Amino acid sequence: MNSVEIKNLDLNFGAVKVLQNLNLDIKQGEFVVLLGSSGCGKSTLLNCIAGLLEVSGGQLFINGKNVTWSEPNERGIGMVFQSYALYPQMTVKGNLTFGLKNAKMPKDEIEKRVARAAEILQIEPLLDRKPAALSGGQRQRVAIGRALVRDVDVFLFDEPLSNLDAKLRADLRVEIKKLHQQLQNTMIYVTHDQIEAMTLADRIAIMKGGKIMQLGSPDEIYNRPQNLYVADFIGSPSMDFFEGHLENGVFTMGDIALPMADYEYANGPVSGPAIVGIRPEHILTGDQTAGAVTTQVTIDIVEPMGSDTLVYSSLNCKPLHIRMDGKAKVAAGETITIGFDPVSASLFDPTTEERI
Ligand SMILES: Nc1ncnc2c1ncn2[C@@H]1O[C@H](COP(=O)(O)OP(=O)(O)OP(=O)(O)O)[C@@H](O)[C@H]1O
């Protein structure tokens, strides 16, 4: 049985259709990240699952039960917001126990659950403090704790780390991953941060205009993007794209001919106009170019990043990014030989924008 099933979901705000006929099945214990640029509808989808928005059409199931019209507290979900949403006048313990007391849970059960959540989230020393006396990261732990004590089936996270600084964000990201490994609950997590999506998710749903453009593992999304939108969205810097022509298993762009015999075609080999997408780390340099199809490019800018070096150049009058080793000795103005690895490239149909 799936943990969450979303069937033909529509959500309109007045005349604006925000989600249209959206379908998504999430397995028990799966960590699914909804990723997309601002306004694509990811928070709206999460709020529909949570029951905070009334859907305009379609159905929602949690653990096989139709919850389309159920109240939020009847759905077996716990939600963690970007803004923490803690009660400022209550202590941490008060915040954790409030919902349980309202639900008239026996006192010893409440104590047990608070102790367990506090231990898992390492907030035991903070239980008597008020939210104002906590750091952002500590507040977010308490917010997660509030979902944890309710022993919910499904955790919903709406950009929970967005208000934190970069270091804390990375720390808490790892903690959320640990929490998932420990609890094995279903988690649905909204973010516009690719790193969070890639590092946390079992599967990522890339959204655009209220639709899911691709649903897949981080590896599938990164290495086999289904369309130009996903290919361009994921990766920093993203893929570089070059127009050309595919004929008899060879992709030609200008005077470069790439043999695509070992490329995994989505629906078998085709001929016609095509766009090739190449990631910066798949451009070969130095010794790697031996045996590859090569060309020469001139370096415009060098960005040393520590562990690697990002080189800005151009090919056929289009931007070309090259990720080189951090120790690479290159300078702006230099001409270097680069090679191509056709197997790691992606091909797209320029008309449908779908993967070839
Ligand atoms: N109450 C509302 N009334 C009308 N339109 C709304 C309302 N809430 C959201 N929208 C619109 O619905 C679309 C989706 O919004 P949503 O908040 O789901 O996007 P998002 O992907 O979560 O973006 P962000 O990352 O900026 O939070 C946007 O175009 C937004 O302007």
Automatic annotation (TrEMBL):
The lineage of its organism: Bacteria, Pseudomonadati, Pseudomonadota, Alphaproteobacteria, Rhodobacterales. SMART domains: AAA. This is ABC transporter ATP-binding protein. Coiled coil: none annotated. InterPro entries: AAA+_ATPase, ABC_transporter-like_ATP-bd, ABC_transporter-like_CS, ABC_transpr_MalK-like, ABC_transpr_MalK/UgpC-like, Mo/tungstate-bd_C_term_dom, NA-bd_OB-fold, OB_MalK-like. GO terms for biological process: carbohydrate transport. It comes from the Bacteria. Gene3D superfamilies: 2.40.50.100, Nucleic acid-binding proteins (2.40.50.140), P-loop containing nucleotide triphosphate hydrolases (3.40.50.300). Keywords: ATP-binding, Nucleotide-binding, Transport. One of its GO terms (molecular function) is ATP hydrolysis activity.
